[in-house]
Design a protein that fits this description.
1089 residues; Jelly Rolls; Immunoglobulin-like; Lipoxygenase-1; 8 domains; 6-stranded antiparallel beta sheet; 5 helices
Length: 1089
């Protein structure tokens, strides 16, 4: 389940840490307090044990299907219950049923949605019958109301006159479901229906999971809460407080006359008997007659225990809660800005966290009281999070007993982490010191046999500190202890240099542990620190002056002999314009320095005059700044090999049909000499090596790459997954000096039931976007040389322009999970790359959390290539007619599922216009030509569901009518169709399975392409290499005609899968005709070669 990180607004009681939740991101400000849907950590309450004699009905929604339920939209807002398998369900599952009363696209809904079960037969039930279910709010700050009904007369809403439950989930974390039960024993012997009615507006999502109707024979009682005493009436408790516990009956029958007890801080056990009768699934609050003394100010651990004869589950018999009796309170109050995600903790003088708050929601007033002991000392620590803290109109003020002690009521000031120290009246004599840094006396990398160890001591207390011991230890050896006689001022630091030196002269890395020993130190957790220092005989110095976008710059220094990253840097904010790093290294090794720019435009000179320099022992090796995505300096050190080739990649496809596959790859020259020859061998699944293929006639310079294709391809005859293992040897006729990087492996999936994929790339770009022209040119050029890619452009994400249509703006939901919308941006098949690391420096886990991403060079191409190499299991074709006189378009989108697809799948059809000239494009002087501009969505923008089946062999067809705007240029109009996943609740589950783009003027009637649309025959050309693929054509005759109508190829008695080589034919248009017993299938193809 995708997690909506929750706001916790309950009173914070000292000693009870509020559950921490991770920060979230929002893609835009949808509405105050609403949370965007993001990654969810699926945690749940532990499921209550059941001894189920008979299960009459069970639904866990793991299949992602509600077809067995009656799903009714009684309010008519077009929103119904949905099966969701991405948000996570109860009890560590993945599926649940969800219903919305507010969405980011529609806003407030008027939910009256009924989810009604099929008939449940209780004719054999004789005992106690129970209905159980789990429920949760997706956003706990916006709870949704729902009701549960039972009927014996029918399954329409009017039949449900008996209500079993009405309320809202009270979960405090979106990932935590709460369990509910209802007694159905009176319906034993009947046939019933169960209905879940979501009835609310303008909240968010309700989630239901793990529904069961069962006959329960379990004997079990559980303590689930201690409700009194509490701090509702104030922080100070009295000498005769009533202790109240909540007892849940998990049994299949009523329970009574059993013992319950409580114990405070391990003291005397107070035991009493519960005489009341508690029905199955009911909770009973029992208040002890024996009161307890909480008048002494302290934190108390209270444990309650139930003792029921025959109890089957002892794990839930006891429950412990910390009760606070205090004489002071800390108040944290304020208002959260448009970006939430801030959090805080309060610790006492021993460093124990007594209260904490998870990530705040946005645009809400907050006020939390924390009961504390006045004679202690507290620290409030605020974490700004990744959204700018309390910027804009946010603020946070911290008060002690009503008097402000920190923070502010001025909006927009708290944009970074901060602390408020020494809160409380126990701070007068707090002694607390610790080691906060360790260094050595030498300023060079080559350390000596008499190095001075320097420990920085920080005074965290409220008074000055002196005359205490301090120690250090190197690599776990002898402990050196000395006395600090100087004074460390309150809130200050002191650098203490040990008199006893250390021998660090041997080259290598040393672990140094240093720690203080102040006898009256209240917090020993911060006393010690361990640091590593390196003794080496060489220094690499890196100096970087940033351009205007320092956050885009990162770098690393890698030992190419061991592949170890020796040093790296990232996360710069430009506050320091120039950084210099001295890195200690061993001269007998070999290193490569690489500088990266996340935007792909280097650090000079379009946006500031950035530069970098790399020195080795003071000698300059490289300078620069005007590069693209990255630039490397190799061969640093005296241990760099002369001949060293790395196998950079194996370039065979990830997926392929059976047949002969070339074994191809790329090598990288890490040596100092050019590579003029090398050998390549390979094997499949660790079998016998191939013959040796010697690559000659090359001249690959240092830091350059070369490609190879083994002269013996491998014939894959059977479907399956195979591992290709490749090894490079005999570099320049001799031995490679570093064999650790000479081998590699790659899996290939051989599958007969797949067709080539055409990637749909959707760009976000507008005339107001000055950075869009170069990226648009890059993508359009990429498409012109890649026949497996098509494009269409949404004019949104960076303001709007004259080409913007409502669907362009609605599509911005595909940025959900990012910090905002931006352009240029793009989507490759609307695919959420998640943790897929696209080739190059694009790391999706770092930069992207949604289908939309920055799509400049090389990231757009890398994403496209990733999708091109992923097979498709459905074909897509467009046929129809267009009347230029009436502008009437009749189009049919149709195809065949060569493999089964799950979930809700649909077809989408759009119309685009190419070659629109404009003089208004920002960032470009003169006439700019817009390509692939979306003119309209002919289908529903998210697709029209295919209801005829998506199993292997199923055909589909969708008919569309549309009136084309006569002002659009006919010769420049294109139809774009796709088969895509449909998911109203998850933007990351709307990916495209396959797509097609045809020119409107090339639209052919269905009869000219397929006389029978139920035919399974699919025809797919690779336009650049001349290979033609035809599937599901078994026993047919295949004809290929050239533009003159001449037959150039005939295949009789065709196989199920056929590959026809047209590579020797000239570029141009061809007609492929497949003649079966009942069908004639024809398709026009174009070879661009």
């Amino acid at each position: 389940m995708k997690k909506v990180y929750t706001l916790l607004t309950a009173l914070l009681i000292a000693g009870i840490a509020i559950a921490q939740v991770a920060p979230y991101k929002t893609y835009k400000k949808l509405k105050p307090g609403k949370q965007a849907i993001n990654e969810q950590i699926a945690t749940t309450h532990e499921n209550t044990q059941k001894d189920v004699q008979v299960t009459f009905f069970s639904e866990d929604f793991e299949a992602g299907d509600l077809s067995a339920w009656s799903n009714l939209d009684e309010d008519g807002d077009a929103s119904i219950w949905e099966a969701n398998t991405t948000w996570g369900g109860a009890n560590a599952s993945t599926g649940c049923a969800v219903s919305a009363s507010w969405t980011s696209t529609a806003g407030a809904l008027t939910a009256d949605n009924w989810l009604i079960s099929s008939a449940i037969d209780l004719s054999t039930a004789t005992g106690n019958v129970t209905l159980g279910w789990w429920a949760a709010n997706q956003d706990v700050a916006w709870p949704d109301h729902y009701e549960v009904y039972v009927s014996t007369t029918g399954s329409t809403p009017a039949d449900f006159t008996t209500m079993l439950y009405s309320g809202e989930p009270s979960n405090t974390d979106a990932a935590v479901f709460e369990e509910h039960t209802a007694d159905l024993s009176s319906y034993a012997g009947s046939t019933i229906y169960i209905a879940f009615r979501h009835y609310d507006t303008n909240a968010f999502y309700i989630k239901i999971d793990d529904i069961e109707v069962f006959e329960n024979t379990l004997t079990d009682a559980a303590i689930v809460d201690i409700t009194a005493p509490n701090n509702d009436g104030g922080c100070a408790l009295g000498a005769s407080e009533t202790v109240t516990v909540s007892i849940l009956n998990n049994s299949g029958s009523a329970i009574s006359n059993f013992d319950v007890s409580y114990q405070i801080d391990g003291g005397t056990v107070v035991t009493e008997t519960v005489s009341a009768s508690i029905n199955p699934s009911e909770t009973y609050d029992y208040s002890f007659t024996q009161t307890a003394d909480f008048s002494t100010l302290a934190y108390y651990d209270v444990t309650a225990t139930v003792a029921l004869s025959g109890d089957a589950d002892a794990t839930n018999d006891s429950y412990t809660e910390q009760i606070t009796s205090a004489d002071a309170y800390i108040t944290v109050a304020g208002y959260t800005p448009a970006n939430g995600g801030q959090s805080w903790t309060i610790t006492n003088s021993t460093g124990t966290v007594i209260a904490s708050h998870g990530a705040y929601q946005w645009n809400i007033n907050v006020s939390d009281d924390v009961c504390v002991l006045d004679n202690d000392c507290y620290t409030f620590a605020f974490t700004a999070g990744e959204n700018g803290g309390m910027g804009d109109d946010g603020y946070l003020e911290i008060s002690y007993n009503g008097t402000p002690v920190g923070g502010t009521t001025t909006a927009g000031q708290q944009t970074a982490d901060f602390t408020v120290d020494f809160i409380g009246n126990g701070c007068a004599d707090i002694e607390d010191v610790g080691v906060s840094a360790i260094s050595v006396g030498s300023a060079t990398c080559a350390l000596s046999a008499t190095e001075t160890i320097i420990a920085t001591i920080t005074n965290y207390g409220s008074v000055d500190a002196s005359n205490f011991d301090i120690s250090y230890q190197v690599d776990g050896g002898t402990v050196v202890t000395e006395t600090v006689t100087g004074t460390v001022p309150q809130g200050g630091t002191l650098d203490y240099s040990f008199t006893q030196t250390a021998d660090l002269s041997t080259a290598g890395t040393y672990s140094i542990n240093a720690y203080t020993a102040l006898g009256t130190d209240v917090n020993t957790a911060n006393d010690a620190l361990t640091e590593t220092v390196t003794s080496a005989d060489a220094t690499v110095t890196v100096t970087i002056t940033f351009d205007d976008y320092a956050d885009e710059t990162s770098w690393d220094l890698v030992n190419t002999l061991t592949s170890e990253t020796v040093a790296s840097g990232s996360g710069y904010d430009g506050s320091v314009p120039t950084i210099t790093e001295d890195i200690c290294v061993s001269s007998d090794q070999c290193y490569t320095f690489t500088i990266y720019d996340a935007y792909g435009d280097g650090i000079c000179c379009d946006y500031g005059s950035g530069s970098y320099e790399v020195l080795y022992n003071g000698t300059s090796l490289a300078t620069g700044g005007d590069f693209g995505s990255e630039e490397a300096t190799m061969g640093i050190g005296t241990g760099c090999p002369t001949n060293d080739v790395a196998l950079q990649s194996i370039n065979t496809p990830l997926y392929a049909n059976p047949g002969s596959i070339d074994i191809t790859g790329t090598i990288y020259n890490l040596g100092s000499d050019p590579v003029t020859s090398y050998d390549v061998v390979y094997n499949i699944d660790g079998g016998t090596n191939s013959t040796t293929y010697t690559v000659t006639g090359v001249n690959i310079a240092t830091a350059e790459t070369g490609t190879f294709t083994h002269d013996v391809p491998y014939n894959f005859t059977t479907d399956g997954t195979y591992t290709i293992n490749v090894e490079i040897t005999a570099v320049n006729g001799g031995a490679d000096e570093n064999t650790a990087n000479n081998t590699g492996s790659k899996d290939i999936n051989i599958n007969s039931n797949m067709v080539p994929r055409t990637v749909l790339f959707e760009e976000f770009s507008t005339e107001q976007c000055p950075n869009c022209p170069p990226v648009a040119t890059y993508l359009h050029d990429y498409m012109s040389t890649n026949p497996n890619m098509i494009m269409m452009v949404h004019h949104s994400a960076y303001y709007t322009d004259d080409f913007t249509i409502p669907e362009n703006e609605d599509m911005l939901v595909m940025f959900e999970g990012l910090s905002g919308t931006f352009a240029p941006a793009g989507m490759a098949d609307r695919f959420f790359f998640d943790d897929v690391n696209i080739t190059g420096t694009y790391d999706a886990t770092t930069y992207y959390a949604a289908p939309a991403f920055w799509c400049g060079d090389p990231y757009g191409g890398n994403a496209i290539d990733e999708r091109v190499n992923t097979p498709a299991f459905v074909t897509v074709e467009i046929n129809g007619t267009y009347d230029q006189g009436t502008n009437a378009l009749n189009a049919t989108v149709h195809g065949n599922f060569v493999g089964a697809l799950s979930g809700t799948v649909g077809t989408s059809l759009w119309i685009t216009e190419d070659d629109i000239e404009s003089t208004n494009q920002a960032g470009f002087t003169g006439t700019w030509t817009h390509h692939d501009v979306i003119r309209d969505a002919i289908s529903d923008m998210w697709g029209d569901e295919i209801t005829t089946g998506t199993s292997t062999g199923d055909d589909y067809t969708k008919d569309y009518t549309f009136t084309v705007d006569p002002t659009w240029v006919y010769d420049n109009l294109y139809l774009v169709a796709m088969v895509n996943q449909i998911d109203a609740s998850d933007v990351n589950n709307r990916f495209v399975h396959n797509s097609i783009r045809i020119k409107l003027s090339d639209l052919l009637p269905l009869s000219a392409n397929k006389t029978n649309i139920e035919s399974n025959v699919s025809i797919y050309p690779n336009q650049t290499d001349g290979q033609l693929y035809i599937s599901n054509a078994e026993n047919s005759t295949i004809y290929v005609f050239n533009s003159l109508g001449e037959v150039i190829t005939i295949v009789e008695n065709a196989n199920q899968f056929n590959k026809i080589d047209l590579s020797n034919e000239s570029k141009g248009t061809y007609i492929v005709k497949v003649v079966t017993e009942n069908d004639v299938v024809a398709k026009k193809i174009t070879l661009v070669k």
